[in-house]
Structures are given as structure tokens and as C-alpha cells.
């Protein structure tokens, strides 16, 4: 009785335990992979934005109402000298960016050695020494009007304002270099640099 029960149990267990045998692999899978690899993959075309494309959107370019300002008569590169300097030694080099009809412009400058004499309100010798030699910076303010242009800058450690107050005289700019804190008002003239002449 016991033996027959054990035999029945073993038969039942054999029926319940799944087979661990693995079915052999077929060649269909590698063939399918090779077929997939042989297929070409389409590449997406570059996307162009029609909103900003001037060919498809006429409104993408500059507005018709926009008018670009033309340079005014002060615009350009200038060499500034003291009006009473017979040696014509440049005090500074100046670049002005200004447009016709615009009250505000911009620009920059480089101070040369003769500027030291102008700063001290002394005769221009070009041999004086001061902290301003070689100083270059942007003008703090450029105000242009029909009759004159004012270029304000601060080249000294005390932070005092210095100005060029200039107006047109033919092809030149003439006027004054002003340093009120130093009691200086000196006549100057500016000519266009050779590379800026028409």
C-alpha cells in the first residue's frame, strides 16, 4: 500500500515538474535580423522655420518703415591738436560714431604724451610726463547738435569731467578742450585721420 502511494506521488510529481529541455533555435531569427539590417533608414530632412524664412515669409526681413540713419558730419576718426602748437603734435586720437538727426552718439579716445601739457595748461612740448599717457576709453557722453558736438570724458584720478566742445569749420572740427576743475580752456582743432579722409 505504501509502495503504491509513493509510486502514484512520483508519477504526479513528474507530471507537475516542467521539462527543462530547451527547444533548439531555428535560423529564422538571424535571417530576420539580417533582413532588418539590409533595410535603409530614411534620414529626416532639416527643418526650416517658415516664420523666420524670408523666402517663404516676406515679413521676416527688415520692416519697410525702418529707416537706417546715415552718419553725420562729425562721424569718423579725428586727430586733435592744440591750435597754438606750431609742431602740430597730436594731443589725442578720437573716434566718433554719430548719426544724422540723432542727439546722442558714442565714441572713444586715446591720449598721447602732448596731452600732459594741455592738462597742465602749459605750452605743448610733447616731453611732459603724466598718468594720462596712453589712456584709452569710451567717452562718457557724446552730444551732437546742428551747430556743435560735445564729448565728455574722465581721464584723471580725481574723476573730474573733461570735455571737447567742437564745431565744424570746413573739413575740420574746431573748438576747445575744457577741464574746469583745472581751470583749463584751450583752443584745439581736429582733422580727419588719413585713413578716414574721402
Q: How does the overall form come out from the CA principal axes?
A: globular
- Enter the CATH topology name of the domain at 76-196: Lipocalin
Radius of gyration: 42 Å
- Tell me the number of helical segments per DSSP (H or I, 4 or more residues long): 3
Percent of residues in helices: 10-25%
What distance separates the N and C termini?
A: 127 Å
The largest pleated sheet is described as: 9 strands, antiparallel
CATH superfamily of the domain at 76-196: Quinohemoprotein amine dehydrogenase alpha subunit, domain 2
What is the class of the domain at 76-196 in the CATH system?
Mainly Beta
Q: What structural class should be given to the helix and strand makeup? A: alpha+beta
Helix-strand sequence: HHEEEHEEEEEE
Instruction: Label the CATH architecture of the domain at 76-196.
Output: Beta Barrel
Low-confidence runs (pLDDT<50, min 5 residues)?
1-38
**Mean of all residue-level pLDDT scores:** 78
Strand residue content:
25-35%
Count the beta strands. Answer: 9
Widest beta sheet: strand line-up: 4-3-2-1-9-8-7-6-5
Characterization of this structure:
The protein has 198 residues and is α+β, with helices and mostly antiparallel strands. It has a domain at 76-196: Lipocalin (Beta Barrel). The chain is 16% helix and 29% strand. Strand 2 and strand 3 form a beta hairpin. The longest helix is centred in the first third of the chain and has 15 residues, at 2-16. The protein is globular, with a radius of gyration of 42 Å. The protein starts with a helix and ends in a 6-residue tail after the last strand.
